[in-house]
Design a protein that fits this description.
Helix content is 48%, strand content 12%. It is an alpha/beta fold. It has a single domain, classed as Alpha/Beta hydrolase fold, catalytic domain (Rossmann fold, 3-Layer(aba) Sandwich), CATH 3.40.50.1820. The longest helix is centred in the middle third of the chain and has 19 residues.
């Protein structure tokens, strides 16, 4: 009899990251699944899109699945990747498996709406005084990586290790324009719960972008499964990768 083919899981990383950021979670699935973890366009080593919008990334993921000849893969998105994945599943529900995983999803709430809008406005204003070369140098700098790493890490005992991971795997993108487009996408959009699918929301109790209580309310309202990790923040892929992988596996295989 022919050998049964392994199911496939696609991991989609978030803003300012690369596929390396999710390998700490994906590695726990390598024995039983085919793992794909591409860099999103404009990040890591991937060429940027002409259409640097949420719909542009949705079409990129759709074409990625078609180009690889994949049949009903599972998709896992983290942070901005959860936005891309959730909107992709809404538009192309037949492309993927019945179960969808959204890690550290980003939802708009009264708590973070004004804060994110103010951050985007301040960042755009600050960058406007720099030329493109200066913008790229600043946005890819070790200093900015350090600031982001400290903002989003809850477990300070792991801070040094997570800093080093960020230095290695974050802040690599094709141009300042690509970075700014991703920042605009992250600040102006949000994760959604796609209808007709079983959706897992896996998030840290100390997520600095969306309060965990609000995420739990969204899950209850739309019938999603909510799994909170109490000792993690937004970077649960770095802080608690084994716990996150176990939650995802239990959901997929239940």
């Amino acid at each position: 009899m022919p050998k049964k083919q392994k199911p496939t899981i696609i991991f989609i990383h978030g803003f300012r990251g690369s596929h390396y950021g999710l390998l700490s979670v994906a590695s726990y699935f390598e024995d039983d699944y085919n793992i794909l973890a591409p860099d999103i366009p404009g990040s890591g080593t991937a060429k940027e899109l002409d259409n640097k919008t949420l719909d542009g990334y949705v079409e990129w993921l759709h074409n990625y699945i078609l180009d690889h000849g994949l049949k009903k893969p599972y998709v896992v998105g983290h942070s901005m990747g959860s936005m891309i994945v959730s909107h992709f599943v809404k538009k192309y529900p037949d492309d993927v498996a019945q179960k969808v995983v959204l890690m550290s999803p980003v939802f708009r709430s009264k708590f973070n709406e004004k804060k994110m809008a103010a951050f985007y406005k301040a960042a755009r204003g600050g960058l406007a005084i720099l030329n493109k070369k200066q913008q790229y140098k600043l946005l890819s700098s070790r200093q900015l990586t350090y600031i982001i790493s400290h903002l989003f890490t809850y477990d300070k005992k792991q801070q040094k290790r997570i800093d080093e991971l960020h230095y290695q795997y974050s802040g690599h993108f094709s141009s300042a324009d690509s970075f700014i487009a991703d920042m605009r996408l992250s600040m102006r959009n949000q994760t959604i719960i796609p209808e007709g699918k079983e959706t897992l929301l896996c998030f840290g109790k100390h997520d600095q972008l969306t309060p965990y209580k609000y995420t739990e309310k969204v899950a209850e309202k739309y019938g999603a499964t909510a799994k909170r990790i109490d000792n993690a923040g937004h970077l649960l892929n770095y802080e608690t990768p084994e716990v996150a992988a176990k939650i995802i596996r239990n959901f997929i295989e239940s």
